[in-house]
Amino acid sequence: MEILRKHYKSGDIIFCEGDNSDCGYLIEAGAIELSVIKKSKKIIISILEEGELFGEIALIDGKSRTATAIAMDDCTLFKVVPEHFQQRLEGSDPLVSMLVKILLSRVRDTHDLWLTDGEGIKSKNIRRLVDDENYQLLRKVARESVVAQSRLSQALEQKEFELHYQPIISLKTKELRGFEALIRWRKNGELVPPYQFIEILEKSGLIVPVGYWVVEQACQDFSHIKKFIRLIQKNPAKLFMSINVSGRQFTEADLIDRMKKIVNRTDILTEDIKLEITESALVHNTEDAVTILEQAKKDNFQLALDDFGTGFSSLSYLHKFPIDTLKIDRSFTVNMLNDDTSMRIVNSIIGLAEGLGLDIVSEGIETEQENKVMTGLECTYGQGYLFAKPMPMTELEVWLEDYLKKFNK
What we know:
Elements: E1 3-8, E2 13-15, E3 24-29, E4 32-38, E5 41-48, E6 53-54, H1 56-61, E7 68-71, E8 75-80, H2 83-90, H3 94-116, H4 123-126, H5 133-157, E9 161-170, E10 176-187, E11 190-192, H6 198-204, H7 207-232, E12 240-245, H8 255-264, E13 273-278, H9 279-283, H10 286-298, E14 302-308, E15 325-328, H11 330-335, H12 340-356, E16 359-363, H13 368-376, E17 381-383, H14 393-404
Parallel strand pairs: 10-12, 12-13, 13-14, 14-15, 15-16, 16-17
Antiparallel strand pairs: 1-8, 2-7, 3-6, 3-8, 4-5, 4-7, 9-10, 9-17, 10-11
């Protein structure tokens, strides 16, 4: 983002009606007069003072200025380039983008009609959005998004979500050490792949109530799992339950307090729960992230950094976070035997974790060869289809009974 401070003297013209647009302005000091010419007469639209943004319509759609801006006295302005807005529009919900485009179209049509008293304005210009293929595509995506959000909200109310659990194994001893809770949606009796609904939950904000439901259900199920294991093993090892925390949840100021209350409603301890946070959730606001993670550690939650090394300069901030575990993304595990870069990354992550005294979980172990390599590198834990797929509770009980017999004490 480019933000430049510019100074104008009283009477200076900042831009004129009809000029090509290349930026917007935020007033730091002074006042700005916005005006238009109608039938050879100057008409003042508004007087803007400190803190106001102007030029925003042209800033967003890149078209000609719809008014003239003049400094009423000595002014200091921040110049903001279009990309600052474009990035936000492109990253927003399609419904928001569609509404913005409609509003911009109406503002410009109204402005043109007002200037000409309707003369020379053709109906095809007013209907330009309706005939625009990109807009039609946006409208289709927006409709699908609204329908999907509504359906997911209904799914939560009707208890269509369920949790599947994937075991996490000690690579050294091959003993069970924990589980990861993974959300699934059973729609009309069929499981919907997570990639088809997680992003919608995130963008719509539904991930927040769904996320708290996951914590509640995972704690209840973990209580059951521990009791079930005690029927099989006399001295079961201490286990943990990993629960994913989304980036959207991580913006909730009371996140840890609410999670602690949920855990306290069961016979599970906070130290039994390992919260998995992605790198992206942490780097967008490091200071707030540190505060939240420190509170989590104070309340005895374990913390894991998920998908480590997949897109950020992790070394520059990792030491700031009170992390217990690094998770090696499955993309590195799957490719390390055939790709030198992936193997070097795996080696580096394990070396870094050992240096910081952290546990390491390798995701996506699917073959004996991958298992052998990770074990040889002294990776702490393994997770993947070689050991077990994510399973609903009924299947997990069958797997547990079979697997734990090997280590019955």
